[in-house]
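Table S4 entry, Acetate kinase.
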Amino acid sequence: MKVLVINAGSSSLKYQLIDMQNEHVLAKGNCERIGVDGLITHKTDDGKKIQYEVAFPTHKEAFMEVVKVLTSGEGKVIGDVKEISAVGHRVLHGSEVYKVSTKITEKVIEDIESFSELGPLHNPPQAAAMRACVEVFGKDTPMVAVFDTSFHQTMPEKAYMYALPYEYYEKYHIRKYGFHGTSHRYVSARYLEITGKRPEGTRVVVCHLGNGSSISAVKDGKCYDTTMGFTPLDGLIMGTRSGAVDPSVVTYLMNKEHMTPDEMSDMLNKKSGFLGVSGLSSDARDLVNAKNNDHHHGAQLACDMLRYQIKKYIGSYAAAMGGLTAVCFTGGIGENSSELREECCEGLEFMGIELDKTANESASGSEMMISAPSSKVQVWVVPTNEELMIAKDTVEIISK
């Protein structure tokens, strides 16, 4: 069975075609600048890379080009579009309605659109992409929606509620939702698979660290708490996002700087984080280079803040779960920065964490245990694979 995995944005359409018989990626690519002009980049499993400009007025034309490049020319990996058995779509927000992945119907698409206030940048184009997909592939090709929020729906009420008047939860569904759920689910499940452990009795902290970062507490295989909240802005310092701040800072700055709500949101989401603290860059690699080579105070401070916050959450989540079995690092920074992993684990020896520095240095980008044999708590690098998780859900649901 071959599954096409789609991650749609307002002006982009990322895709992977996965052969689920051996979980092998046959091809992947990205349709960019939808609604502007259009550019497609396509890579095959045998190393071919194709890039060319093509008009993408809407997501429909992008899907048509994906079909064309998969089935013809130099980028061909299948003989006919009918070889694609199903399409799995990443969806940002499922509110409290969708606690698991689900087969897509018109009602599901309408629901996803209705959650647009909760996910204004992602839900509308993802719903539009689903409708475009139906137009191109036809109604007989099953589609499945996999929600970033669904894994976190197992959080207890005491973890997901805010201490606001309860009426706002009832009226507007204001609560912690959490994001990166597909990654957290994949990594926590993969850890259990690698180690042969049953979920019951395990206490795992998953650190998904990249330009957007979040940490989850996974107890008995289910999400118990997570750092992102009502939106992906909460929690850790990120590339351009502030992470958690005192709510009074928001109103104080709005008054002082005469900022509108939209301007404040823009500042918190796009001008803060690594970029705001360092005044240099939103890319963690630039900050590491600057602090090491130029002794740049802002870069050093941003790096220190991230490491401090990660360490703090590992400790607090261990306390919340009543113990700690393992810490798993994933995401672009988590998988590739041995320095960050080492610094985050330093000082946690009292919790039973003991790093194998040699293993840690050699683990970047690969699946490996990096804790010492004597460590009471295991530490792992587990590269995330959200596309495979989406494909697996798709196969499971359409096979029922």
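The mean pLDDT is 97.
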